[in-house]
Amino acid sequence: MSEQAPPTALVRRARRINRELAEVYPYAHPELDFENPFQLLIATVLSAQTTDLRVNQTTPALFAKYPTPEAMAAADPSDLEQILRPTGFFRAKAKSVLGLSAALRDDFGGEVPGRLEDLVKLPGVGRKTANVVLGNAFGVPGLTVDTHFGRLSRRFGWTTSEDPEKVEQDVARLFPKAEWTMLSHRVIFHGRRMCHSRNPACGVCPIAHLCPAVGTGEMDPEKAKKLLKYEKGGFPGQRLKPPPDYPGPPAPPLAAS
Predict the structure, then answer these.
(1) According to the model, what pLDDT value does residue 3 have?
(2) pLDDT for residue 208 is more than 90
(3) Which of 56, 90, 145, 199 could make a disulfide contact with 84, Cβ separation 3.0–4.6 Å?
(4) Which residues fall in a compositionally biased region of kind Pro residues (predicted)?
(5) CB 110 within 8 A of CB 104
(6) Which pTM value belongs to this model?
(7) pLDDT tens digit string along 93-107?
(8) Is 202 one of the annotated binding-site residues?
(9) Cα 159 from Cα 150, distance rounded (Å)
(10) At a CB cut-off of 8 Å and minimum separation 6, what does 121 contact?
């Protein structure tokens, strides 16, 4: 039995939300600092169960000491664990980083592959991580279904699923493939800054008029304004080296945090 196309009204509203988020966050970008596909891959794996800020504060020392898959695969595990300690779950993360670096060295000539089916074979790499790398290091469109993207997709009525892969499938049907990567950035930006899990800032949300879940959070504009995070609240972002068009201050390095 073939799957029915999503209702036209849902598609139109979803695409309007995307257009309006693009006006709110014209500077939306990956919030992990990276200079090449290997750095982005490692940083994304390290971002599990911690903030991008904490990863960005940790990776400068990591990449200064182990700049390539070959160097990282040969790292002393205890030294690696010590560097990764600030990111939490550092033993498991050190094991993943060593394993995927060895796999890159042994199976891919020391290069990060540019195909989803190859990336998900690497230790510690799932579809979310693979789509982050493909979209931001290789220009291959992908949807990054993290906790923010999943939460907002359900609030917007784009999906009812809690399963990341099903969320990805449902949302993919609503948007042109070329929009997927930037859509991910915009939705995640909005989730981190306004549409929080426990108390979204509905009273100052610029897309509240399009949101089926409006009223879930604080509706009083003055109270809602106090809930804004990162540059929307006048605070530093998550990157130590943000893009030139980022309107907020950069994050502090680890020693100053």
Answers:
(1) 66
(2) yes
(3) 90
(4) 241-257
(5) yes
(6) 0.94
(7) 999 999 999 999 999
(8) yes
(9) 8
(10) 103
Answer yes or no: is 245 a known binding residue: no
**Amino acid code (one letter) for 135:** G
Residue type, 107: D
Do 235 and 217 meet the contact criterion of CB atoms below 8 Å apart?
no
Grouping H, G, I as helix, E, B as strand and the rest as coil, residue 188 is helix
For residue 160, pLDDT beyond 60: yes
* Alpha carbons 248 and 232: distance in angstroms, whole number: 8
Helix H segments across the chain? 8-24, 37-46, 52-65, 69-73, 77-84, 90-107, 116-119, 127-137, 147-155, 164-172, 180-193, 221-225
Q: Helix (H, G, I), strand (E, B), or coil: what is residue 126?
A: coil
Amino acid at 215: G
Cβ burial, residue 3 (10 Å; 0-12/13-18/19+): exposed
Does the annotation place 114 within a ligand binding site? no
What is the structure's pLDDT at 1?
Answer: 39
Which tens digits make up the pLDDT trace of 40-86? Answer: 999 999 999 999 999 999 999 999 999 999 999 999 999 999 999 99
- 209-213 mean pLDDT: 98
d(CA 34, CA 40): 5
Measured at the CA of 121, the angle between CA 183 and CA 238, to 5 degrees, comes to 40
Question: Which residue shows structure tokens 């998900």?
Answer: 120
Positions marked active-site: 128, 146
CA-closest candidate to residue 197, choices 238, 152, 143, 234:
152
Token reading at 69 = 């898959």
